[in-house]
């Protein structure tokens, strides 16, 4: 059962039938009966409730790709930002846009690692928070600051999404090539474009470079 709307209800266990007190057995000739009827026990069980965040756009990337910085640049959300992996330990959701603009919600989940679809790095706990997103935004560290290959990172993210949930692998997505202000990103960006064979948005979440074009593309990709 999936509860996705405010006020929505679902009965996990039925309550027991109530008993009847002695007053229920009173008659005209017996005003104070001395017996009553016990109720019957209700249903019982143990359940695991899984919380899934609801956002229109989900940020997906490896640790230190710059997802939290991007969320902070786009919205008033203030996730923890630092230069070490796994700074984000829980999902953050920000609202992007003013009341005069097309507003949408953006979710930042902790960084994925290889094997996330098998639960490594708490992969299942993280990935479930983007299962309802209409659009995914893959954030790649194009400069390879941690010595990673941006093209391989892109392929890894696509694989982990597909293996976790086939539907996630087919979900509309955009690719943000972050840290494009660093000199190392130039040759990596060309290789990434060749591998992805789709539009890539070079950005710098730190300086703001390329963010308006990315924001416009996100809005256009959202369902009407």
Write the layout of secondary structure elements.
Layout: E1 57-61, H1 67-74, E2 92-96, E3 104-108, H2 123-127, E4 135-141, H3 150-164, H4 166-169, E5 173-178, H5 185-196, E6 200-202, H6 211-221
Parallel strand pairs: 1-3, 1-4, 4-5, 5-6
Antiparallel strand pairs: 2-3
Helix pairs in contact: 3-5
Give an account of the 3D structure:
The protein has a six-stranded mixed β-sheet with strand order 2-3-1-4-5-6, sandwiched between helices. The relative contact order is 0.14. The chain has a single domain, classed as Rossmann fold. It is of the alpha/beta class and 224 residues long. Residues 79-88 have low confidence and may be disordered. The protein has helices spanning 67-74, 123-127, 150-164, 166-169, 185-196, 211-221; strands at residues 57-61, 92-96, 104-108, 135-141, 173-178, 200-202. Helix 3 (150-164) packs parallel to helix 5 (185-196).
Any low-confidence stretches, pLDDT <50, length ≥5?
A: 79-88
The total tally of domains equals 1
Helix content: 10-25%
CATH superfamily: P-loop containing nucleotide triphosphate hydrolases
Biggest sheet strand line-up: 2-3-1-4-5-6
The termini sit apart by: 27 Å
**CATH architecture label name:** 3-Layer(aba) Sandwich
User: What is the name of the CATH topology?
Assistant: Rossmann fold
Described by strand count, sense and barrel closure, the largest sheet is: 6 strands, mixed
Give the rounded overall mean pLDDT: 81
Shape: elongated
Order of helices and strands: EHEEHEHHEHEH
By CATH reckoning, the class would read Alpha Beta
The fraction of residues in strands falls at: 5-15%
